[in-house]
Amino acid sequence: MRMTTRRGMFAAASAVLVAALVTAVVPSASADEGFYSPPSPLPSGQDGDIIKSQPSKYNNATSTRIMYLTRDVKDERIAVTGSVIVPDKQWSGGGPRPIVAYAPFTAGMGDQCAPSKTLAGEGQQDMASGYQNSFVDTLLNKGFAVAQTDYQGLGTPGEHTYVMRAAEGHAVLDVLRAAQRLPDAGLDKDAPLGIAGYSQGGGASAAAAELAESYAPELDIKGAYAGAPVADLGMLAETLDGSMYAGFLGFALIGINEAYPEAKMLELANEKGAQAFMDLRTKCTLDAVFGYWYTDTSTLTKDGKPVAHYLDQSPFKEIVAENQRGSIKPEVPTLVEHAPVDDVLPYEQGKQMAKDWCGKGAAVQFKDLTVWGPYLSHVMGMNSAPSNAANWLNDRFTGKPATSNCGQF
């Protein structure tokens, strides 16, 4: 099929949704921006220690906005923000209330996009941020407490290190530690723990599952759900380029530039590319989609070559390898789900991650997500992912053994 025909089909299939999403954007509500400024120097303490907290808002729950200590890809101490949300609903499964680390999917790069703001009805809200609330609601409705991270640089100073494995995995694991240590939250330090995320969050959940044994061995993590995960940055550089979701590739390049300044990303960009780089760092999800869909990165580089061309060269090939999910065996049971017709994150890279884990002896369940068709299928996967994640984690928390289907997919 010719590219122009395929793009036309995508555009036609998404026209109604686009109109709905555009009109769904609401003006920013006020947030306490001073809260998002870390003290300098950072206080001494352990990873996961809370730097500061303040009451936040969430329907039918007690929500607390937090800033806590974690580590970036260079293992340097940083501060990130998030929320700890405890539902009014009681936990009926016996024992202490479980805590689930919610790893948000793509919210954007601008500080106004931080999920700890949008979940509270602040920041820039649109249909994409509404899906964050839907996932959190599903977890809360099971009686789980939710510990949500904003990741590095989303809300806090600096650029968001979008899809960088170590930074995201550390932030997810440390938000569980922070929830356990939050005064007056009423959460038990011996509570069973889980992790859940979709898309960017699926990749972050996968990263946390891989890093838990070495980074946070004391955490009693019963299972991790990784829906439509980011697993292979090299493959994404090819599939996102020129697609409806090319803006997400721009997000990843900004994330690489922040996490690995030695990559000197801007030295590859022409004037148009540099302008796109500076623009995308301020955007939330839908603004990036609509502003950059079907952009070819070959139009943004000085030599007219696409981003994927550089990935077999240093330092990019080392960066891609360092951020590959599937390279470390998770010691916690995992459920990986992916739609075979996913139009954003290729099914093959999520499935391969699960196979790689199986090959290392991990307890993995891999399932196909059912969606109605190939167009907007990644978005549609979010309709079933939250309940699938919540039900699977509930089984882990209530003592049902996790099963593996390694060798069957």
From TrEMBL:
This is Lipase family protein. The keyword Signal applies. It comes from Haloechinothrix salitolerans. Residues 1-31 form the signal peptide. Keywords: Signal. Pfam families: LIP. Residues 36-56 are annotated as: Disordered.
